[in-house]
TrEMBL record, chain A:
It is found in: Mitochondrion. The keyword Ribosomal protein applies. The lineage of its organism: Eukaryota, Metazoa, Ecdysozoa, Arthropoda, Hexapoda. It holds the Pfam family Ribosomal_S2. Keywords: Mitochondrion, Ribonucleoprotein, Ribosomal protein, Signal. Its main location: mitochondrion. GO terms for biological process: translation. GO terms for molecular function: structural constituent of ribosome. It comes from the Eukaryota. HAMAP family: Ribosomal_uS2_B. This is Small ribosomal subunit protein uS2m.
From TrEMBL, chain B:
It comes from the Eukaryota. Keywords: Mitochondrion, Ribonucleoprotein, Ribosomal protein, Transit peptide. GO terms for molecular function: RNA binding; structural constituent of ribosome. InterPro entries: Ribosomal_Su5_D2-typ_SF, Ribosomal_uS9, Ribsml_uS5_D2-typ_fold_subgr. The gene is 109539345. GO terms for biological process: translation. The lineage of its organism: Eukaryota, Metazoa, Ecdysozoa, Arthropoda, Hexapoda. It comes from Dendroctonus ponderosae. This is Small ribosomal subunit protein uS9m.
Amino acid sequence: MEGAFILNLTLLVFIYATRDKYLCLETATIYESNPNLLPSKMLKIRNVLNFAEKCSTRTRLLSSGAPQIAPAIDEPGPKESVKTEVLKHPDYFSVRDIFTVKDLFDARVHYGHREGSLESRMLPYIYGSRLGHIVFDLDKTAQYLRQALNITAHIAYRDGIVLFFMRQPQNAHLVETCAKECGEFAHTRFWRGGIFTNAEKQFGAVTRLPDLCIFFNTLTTILSQHTAVRDSAKMGIPTIGIVDSNCNPNLITYPVPGNDDSPAAIEFYCRVFKEAILRGKTKRKEHEAL
Amino acid sequence: MMRKIGIAFRPHNLLNIQNWLLSSRKILEIRTLSAQASSTTEIGSIDTGAPVENGDSKKNLSKAMKAYLDRAREHDEFMNAQRVEFEIGKRHLANMMGENPETFTQADIDNAIEYLFPSGLYQKHARPIMKPPEEVFPQRKAAEFDETGRPYHFLFYTGRSNFYQVLYDVVEHINEMYKFEDSMTRKNLQPDPMLKLNLSGTEWIAKSALEFRVVETVSDREYNTFVTAMDRLSNMPFAYKVKDFIMEYRVSLMNQSETYDAIKPQIREDGRESVTVYECRRKRAIGNVTVISPGTGKITINGQGISYFEGIQEREQILFPLIFSNMQNKVDIEAEMQNGGPSGQAGAIRYGISWALRSFVDQETMESMRLAGLLTFDIRVRERKKPGQAGARRKFTWKKR
């Protein structure tokens, strides 16, 4: 009974650990409401708090440390002054209004996996658990997704190559169609090692690699991560990844916490990323015409 | 000289043959020819798929495109050189054979090579050949990306874009079928049984054929995926809607035109039609069989009736094709047999009758006769006795102690 209480308590603390301003308040509340709590147990809670805090800072560091995307070649395009202006604007392509948090909810993005498969690095992004299943904090998901959409639009604006990944046969066709519709690329098949790291041998010639990889799921099976995640990191290709509660977000440049299994969710991601890419491309065309 | 011929005997040694021919002839002729050839090869050169510009725009080419253009140029130059050499070699060959170089065809070349370099090698593709370079060197893909290095195909990074495009199309069709099926169910309509897709007599194209079509290597697992996907599509109730797509990837099981070239009947003095099959064989037996139509079912074997054979089995052998094709009282049979025993002779007559009956039955019966094995020559013969053994397989009695 007490064990269950501690577990619930720990989860509660996890949820609020990353919300800095509530941190002290909540700890105090816990202590007040449970005066019988032993000091040793309090210590445990504090350790958990520290850990969660560390996790959140690490992710923040990771996501802010994204490399600046330089155009792959010296292509003719919009003027340099226009380009700087585009870069300076915080949300030039207004990706903010592509979706709302309610859209996320309707697309079932908040569903995570069961508690047992929870990856501890995903703790900062979760809201809690219900009936033994993880629930994502959609406010955070929205924030990360907007960041990801922004970078996608910028790369599309600069004529970058975007490659979509998906390793579930059920949703593969959806992703391929999405890539086709927005004039980008898809890889939904078995990943032959070395496509990025040994491209010259694989394609028989010097080949331009993608400028952005978008993973609609980052796992190949339920246990192993997609090799392309590692290979992109090796080759310095920025990545966007939908990370579910059982995924490791460490190697992903722009992780987006959310459900990566339901067709509804995948459809939603396809829609928003396609929209962002098309906005980037339209702007590019407009500026080229100037 | 001997050494050079020795080299030429190596398989696929096209170049050596041509070099040998080159070295043995005048150079003056080569010059005029190479000028001719270079003017003709411009048409046949590989389409690079991207405009080659010089000057300012060269700066905008990506590394990938530059590398491709270099490769394409090298390949073009190589192929041009090969074409020139082939033309010269062809002319020399024609002169050697004392024929007109202008009208020297590929068939003539093959004959000449076979005559000049007789080969005892069993494998035909291992013998010396001389073919146009387009047939000798494998086909290459044109550029798959534009000047900025951006690939054309949306599945380019899978490395097998054409193959996966096929799979993509299959799924696209399946999804269409599902939608169509739903709409038909809502209207309470069933698929038309008259239009049902008939795939009998055809099979999915082989892996090698698929590889040739997509110009990509396809692994066994990928080929199985292809077959599974196509099976799934063709098993759908409304699959006849995408018949064209499915039939593109099917080939007929056998080339039927060869089997169905039936012998033309001769008109006899009495006005009846007859077909004679010469040298019908089975085991050691050999003979000629004549089928005469119309007839009454009269059978003559070496001047006797069916009683020529004492055994029931032999008589059944002879009657079987007639009964099978329902012609037992409609034709007369005449057979002259030599050598062999009763079963061999009966088998030879059976084969002769079946072979001749093709001229008097319709296409459908002919096909069922083929399926029944009546039109297949029986190659089985007596196996020789081996030394150290009692017979072909039987060993001598041997007791250790």
